[in-house]
Amino acid sequence: MSEAFKTRQEEVYAKLRSDILAGRLLPGSKLRFVELCERYGSSVGVVREALSRLLEQDLVHSAPQQGFIVTPISRTRLIHLTSARVEIESLTLGHAVAEGDVDWEAELLAAHHRLASCPLVDPDDPQRLSEEWARLHAEFHRILLSGCGNPFLVEIASQLRDAAELYRRWSVPLGGHGSTRDIVGEHRAITNAALARDAEAATRALERHIALTTELLLEADFIEND
Description:
- With 226 residues, the chain is mainly alpha-helical.
- The protein folds into two domains: 3-70, Winged helix-like DNA-binding domain superfamily/Winged helix DNA-binding domain (Arc Repressor Mutant, subunit A, Orthogonal Bundle), CATH 1.10.10.10; 75-218, Up-down Bundle (Four Helix Bundle (Hemerythrin (Met), subunit A)).
- Helices cover 65% and strands 8% of the residues.
- Helix 5 (102-116) packs antiparallel against helix 6 (131-146) and helix 5 runs antiparallel to helix 9 (183-195).
- 28% of the residues are buried.
């Protein structure tokens, strides 16, 4: 395989992934080879390779006789996932607030500062969540719960957050970060309550933070009942 072909594969993969995460290719929409080849000026082989990689990341689905589609948003799955996250992450945060040490406090404060200082959207693609923000956001929530001394709770919470990543990525272009939403303030409220060792206020702020994205996404017209 030539270097030029590999480079072209990477370009098409990156563009297709960006279009999915930015909502330019909507959840549940069909991904037809002819249209994709024309859209990206590429061959069927290159597009197929890109789709195979995205299939592994759960950004696209494939079904016999149907071909590839952008992973659909399941209303039922989203509701159940949100409910599980609220239960587990709230429980884990309660332990973190009670058990976290001074190092945990310092790490949480630093993680919040880094996240608050980072732009939410990609400056070159305002419809898409910034990759750096997404990384810092994951780090903030990891550190937030890391004060919990029960590794099983921490691991389960992490798995549930990973399962929600696709919905979180789509929350910017599809309305989950509504224009009136103060996401910086949401993270600040969680951080301040946790550092004040106010478990009730911290878990209440976290629960609202998790639920709000889901509420706004469920209002979107493209999500069908299932």
